[in-house]
Write a structure and sequence with these properties.
single chain, 3 domains, 5 helices, elongated, 259 residues, 14% helix, 9 strands
């Protein structure tokens, strides 16, 4: 381990030189008090000054100065603005591919799918597809989903992820709408059934009055537009207004004045 450098007397005393260098780089009036000095190497130290710019609260001007062996003159190496404790800094950079969230895709954006996406597996489009794949996974042609021209289809992870999103989402059994009614989509005439492994748990709603119209719904979801709700089950027109009730248990004191 490298020993801590000894603070050089000449460079440590060069506070005025360091301040002048900082003021030459910083906007006028933004170099504050001298905060301290630290040894970086033999005859190399860094002086720090408070930054008073309101846009850089907690930041510090760091000025590194040095001198050559047996030389008396101290020179400036660099001047930088660095964050200090409690300073406001930009958040850590996150790649664009990790920043984008579901719903961010709009017109003009192309979202590439990685070749090794675990949500997808090769679809069976021909016997040539089997070359080299059998050595990587114990999959037989009879177990492949027919891609019908699609080179890749959903894997078990992809199916499970979709099922979890739909089950826990706005049109799943845990939503406020589903909890407010008893009838479910499983018995609704407006449900369009779907095939595949998710068809036993989900379908597509075709009730234009439902908030789920055109959406994938859990068979355990439900809304107030179920096909089995008859006209006699609801009140037509404006809601009924209760008859007025006379309160005979109390009285109001009225100031009738004096004639």
């Amino acid at each position: 381990m490298k020993a801590t450098a000894k603070l050089d007397s000449a460079t440590a005393k060069a506070v005025d030189l360091a301040r002048a260098a900082a003021e030459a780089e910083a906007p006028a009036g933004t170099v504050g008090d001298h905060l301290g000095v630290a040894a970086d190497d033999e005859r190399v130290v860094t002086h720090t000054f408070a930054c008073t710019d309101p846009g850089y609260v907690g930041w510090q001007w760091a000025v590194t100065v040095a001198r050559a062996p047996r030389a008396k003159n101290v020179t400036v190496d660099e001047v930088v603005l660095l964050p200090g404790e409690g300073s406001i800094t930009a958040p850590a950079w996150v790649p664009w591919s990790e920043r984008v969230q579901p719903g961010d895709l709009v017109v003009g954006i192309v979202w590439p799918t990685p070749a090794d996406d675990v949500r997808l597996i090769p679809g069976f489009t021909g016997m040539d597809d089997l070359e080299g794949f059998a050595s990587r996974a114990p999959v037989h042609p009879s177990q492949w989903e027919i891609g019908l021209g699609r080179e890749r289809v959903l894997s078990a992870e992809g199916l499970e992820g979709a099922a979890d999103r739909w089950q826990d989402g706005e049109f799943g059994p845990g939503s406020a709408m589903a909890r407010s009614v008893e009838a479910t989509c499983a018995s609704c005439g407006f449900l369009i059934t779907i095939g595949g492994p998710l068809g036993q748990a989900f379908g597509v709603c075709a009730q234009e009055m439902s908030p789920a119209d055109g959406r994938v719904v859990s068979l355990a979801y439900g809304c107030g537009a179920h096909s089995q709700i008859g006209e006699t089950s609801v009140t037509s027109g404006a809601p009924a207004i209760a008859a007025p009730v006379t309160d005979e248990l109390a009285y109001d004191a009225l100031d009738l004045g004096h004639s």
